[in-house]
Amino acid sequence: MLKLMSSTAIAGMLLLGAGIAHAADVKEVQMLHWWTSGGEAAALNVLKGDLSKEGYAWKDVPVAGGGGDAAMTALKAMVAAGNYPTASQMLGYTVLDYAQAGVMGDLTETAKKEGWDKSVPAALQKFSVYDGKWVAAPVNVHSVNWLWINKAVMDKIGGTEPKTFDDLIALLDKAKAAGVVPLALGGQNWQEATMFDSIVLSTGGPEFYKKAFNDLDEESLKSDTMKKSFDNLAKIVTYVDPNFSGRDWNLATAMVIKGDALVQVMGDWAKGEFVAAKKTPGNDFLCYRFPGTDGSVIYNSDMFGMFNVPEDRKAAQVALATATLSKSFQSAFNVVKGSVPARTDVPDTDFDACGKKGIADLKAANDGGTLFGSLAQGYGAPPAIANAYKDVVSKFVHGQIKSSDEAVKQLVQAIDDAK
Amino acid sequence: MSSVATTEPAIARGTRASIRGRMQDALPKIVLAPSFAITVIFVYGFILWTIYLSFTNSKTFPSYAITGARSYQRLWRWTFESDPPSSWYTSITNMGIFGVLYIGICLALGLLLAILLDQKIRGEGILRPIFLYPMALSFIVTGVAWKWFLDPGLGLEQTLHQLGWTSFHFDWIKNKDFVIYTVVIAGVWQASGFVMAMFLAGLRGIDGEIMKAAQIDGATTVQLYRRIIIPLLRPIFLSAFIVLAHMAIKSYDLVVALTSGGPGGSAWLPSNFMYEYTFKRNEMAVGSASAVIMLMTISAIIVPYLYSELKEKGR
């Protein structure tokens, strides 16, 4: 009874998902996702095309909102009401949450046949395999620690690639002096936290990042290095235009594309926006690793979580999973999306300069053990902790938390509360 | 034998009548039963269920093992250790600011507009719907419209800069300390016309004889309003207050559409807090605890009010 009530409660409260997953067809794939910006939608069309060639209809369930919060809410309502979609775009620990709740399907057979164990990086398998079963198909690997720079503006102010954090500050100063907005940032908590991921890696180095943001080691979280990181964040935020609060990430990218701003610190999904605006790397924009983080990759990965659908829809699900991890799709999709393939054996011939660097970096980081999950993107810790972290960073950026001492204290407390 | 023959139909008639009677008695109950059952389950059942959840450690999905009042302890700690302000503390102080200003300004402005409109001016038929129609918009539309209007890069500030007044500065919507006041502005804009309509109806309903009598006694217009008309409007004040109060408590969508939560969550109301923690942050237990506290706060105001109302009726 309680379980029934819980399902109806959530479904009723959200009033979402109703009518989405009725009347399932054998030859139909229902996909819940939040890829609604230009570059993202274009990337998804690749998969739609591949599946329609095999005769599967595509039933889109898009839920707008960059960080996927709204989509996850909709998904929760659907799952609680027993209306499983064929698959849903999901991030890291969310997959494991749902797998633990026992609503995910089992793709192990397909995975064995297709040899996913060998081709997918181990770091991703941590999230796509639960209890020995494949429950999700990774679509790509994004890395978070990138700088995206408008080349025309860069030339105008005579800047060069920043190698250290101080270089970056000097570069931003130049832009400021030239009257351009130095840093395009959207003041939403996930964007601020995504930037902070890079700052922590740059300030503390790979070991420190792993200890603090993957292992959640309390000593590291309250260390002086973390304080220094917050100080660096405070420094970099002074270069943002006053109107940044609440701006979407793709609008911040648009500022860089148009030359209104010099640089955006954002994951490589920003490249999808550049590509969609017909810009090419090297000529129109530049991509550098966030200064001081070269050699390490902070990743997140979009996964298609596969739900435990009825038998008559399993074939469509397997087709979706196979298509998702096929080399041709991985290449075509990630060229458009800006990310790099989720398997290490895909040739980089079709990728642009930034993509080639991304693929090489991922391989090196995978081999060298410097591939870390992004805490801001839900790959460092479960959602409750990631959200507590985003909260603290956002409050610090917007001045509710006034000093780095206080920020560190709040961070430790918030993470402890959310455990 | 004959007596049996005569009594039998009588008994039959009697039972038939009583069946019909009983049916007639039961019919309203039968008809109301489904909606009553639904109300009991979906309102009161879920209140109990939420209270139950607040004592568990539910995260993404409900869990049913009771783990004590940890969620409440967290909320209380966040309330009283409030430097820097926690999200919960911000939410409840915002509720105070928003509630008082929104209700206060709406009542004052609504009354003022109604009095001005009641002066037998020309064009009242046009003015009244102009003031009233914002109410026809949903909070989402109001929120988005005002978001653009108040955005320093798009709306008012930008326009005045282009017109040459470059020192003009109005960035409340991007300012953590003032963002809640922009919610008040948008809310007042939407609801004060509705309050005006209520007061106007009240003003029209006042007996002209009383006013004439007062005027004959030499009362000035100000005295007339202060001593006679406004006191006579007391029931309107009460109903306007109740309508506004419930709108203030439920105005989740306005905050989301207007400010997306504000810089660092500084525009949150308790309803935003509850939704964020329950559905976005996967902290269902904390969300439930906050919902229970909201319910208790509202009950603390409503129950005495209902009690006094019912007592008066009973007399």
Automatic annotation (TrEMBL), chain A:
The record, for SUPFAM superfamilies, names: Periplasmic binding protein-like II
Q: Where in the cell is it found?
A: Periplasm
Name the UniProt key words of this record, in alphabetical order.
Periplasm, Plasmid, Signal, Sugar transport, Transport
Q: Name one Pfam family in it.
A: SBP_bac_1
Secretion signal span:
1-23
The main location class comes to periplasm
Q: Which InterPro entries match?
A: Bact_solute-bd_prot1 (IPR050490), SBP (IPR006059)
Cellular component (GO) terms are: periplasmic space
UniProt function note: Part of a binding-protein-dependent transport system for a sugar.
Q: Which family does it belong to?
A: Belongs to the bacterial solute-binding protein 1 family.
Record-given protein name: Probable sugar-binding periplasmic protein
Q: Which organism is it from?
A: Rhizobium grahamii
Automatic annotation (TrEMBL), chain B:
Organism whose genome encodes this protein: Rhizobium grahamii
Q: What does the sequence similarity comment in the record state about its family?
A: Belongs to the binding-protein-dependent transport system permease family.
Q: Where in the cell is it found?
A: Cell membrane
Q: Would you tell me the protein name for this molecule?
A: Sugar ABC transporter permease
What topology does it adopt in the membrane? Multi-pass membrane protein
Residue ranges annotated for the ABC transmembrane type-1 domain, each copy included:
92-307
- GO BP: transmembrane transport
The UniProt keywords, alphabetically, are: Cell membrane, Membrane, Plasmid, Transmembrane, Transmembrane helix, Transport
Residue intervals passing through the bilayer:
30-52, 95-118, 130-149, 178-203, 224-249, 284-307
UniProt xrefs under Gene3D superfamilies: MetI-like (1.10.3720.10)
One Pfam family of this chain: BPD_transp_1
Listed CDD domains: TM_PBP2
- Look up the coiled coil feature and give its residue ranges: none
What InterPro entries does the entry give?
ABC_transporter_permease, MetI-like, MetI-like_sf
Alphabetical GO CC annotations of the entry are: plasma membrane
